[in-house]
Amino acid sequence: MICPSCGTTLLDDSLFCQNCGCKITVQEEDKEQTPKASKARSKLKVSLIVVAIFAVILGALSVYQGIQLKQKGLQLEQALGENDSLQDEIKVKEEKIKSLQADIKTLQSKEQSQKQKVDSFDAIVQVAQHSTLSSTSSHFYVDRYIIVMKPNSTASLKLTANWSYGGTVHSSTSARGTAYVTFNDNSWYNSVYLTVHSGTSGVATLHFSNTADNIAFDVLVIVTP
Q1: Strand order in the sheet with 169-173
Q2: What are the beta bridge partners of residue 159?
Q3: Which of 53, 115, 193, 208 is deepest in the core (most CB within 10 A)?
């Protein structure tokens, strides 16, 4: 309601103007329209309040969702960090496993090598126990009775076989795949050089005998791996 005298905005049920004191006369039409306007303004206020409440709720939800998303992001970053840490630990353990596997292979190789040495030693002992690694004759002997060789190699051996009445020398091997001997000459005056040929690793006995005085002896050949 507006004062018709000074134009001051008044309350709808005012009888006098609070500014100029003018008496306010309300026409019947205005009295009928005033409750309707009041109801409209009330509805508008309610609507504005509802909208404001919805806005506050939506804002609160938005803030809550933002907080939740931030927490989820932090949790994800933490999980990714833990995953990277676990991956690093896995790599370290894999390297340790590889190192241990290499150590095991080295130990197995050493064990195999030691076993071969033990087997070779046992074979040497067994052959030596059943061999005559010397000669009792001053006319029939060699310059050495034990020869150590590498696989697929040769060694020289000097044989003295000196009889005034002549004789024939015979030779044989216990393991031709490991070692055997060949004569460099078919005849000689008092001595001859022989060539010992090695094959695979192992132990072999070269046996020598003659027809002059029936003396025999052995030469031990050790072919190392």
Answers
A1: 146-149, 216-223, 202-210, 169-173
A2: 142, 192
A3: 208
pTM of the model: 0.49
Q: For residue 19, give the amino acid letter.
A: N
Which residue did the predictor score with more confidence, 127 or 13? Answer: 13
pLDDT score at 200:
94
Domain ranges in the chain are: 132-223
Tokens matching residue 91: 């790599």
Residue 23 is encoded by which pair of tokens? Answer: 């008496």
Q: Minimal CA–CA distance to 137: which of 25, 213, 38?
A: 213
Place of tokens 């919805």: 54
CA atoms of 218 and 141, how far apart (whole Å): 10
CB 131 within 8 A of CB 204: no
What CATH number belongs to 132-223? 2.60.40.10
- d(C-alpha 195, C-alpha 7), whole Å: 144
Q: Which residue has the tokens 């609160």?
A: 60
Q: What's the start-to-end Cα distance of the chain, in Å?
A: 123
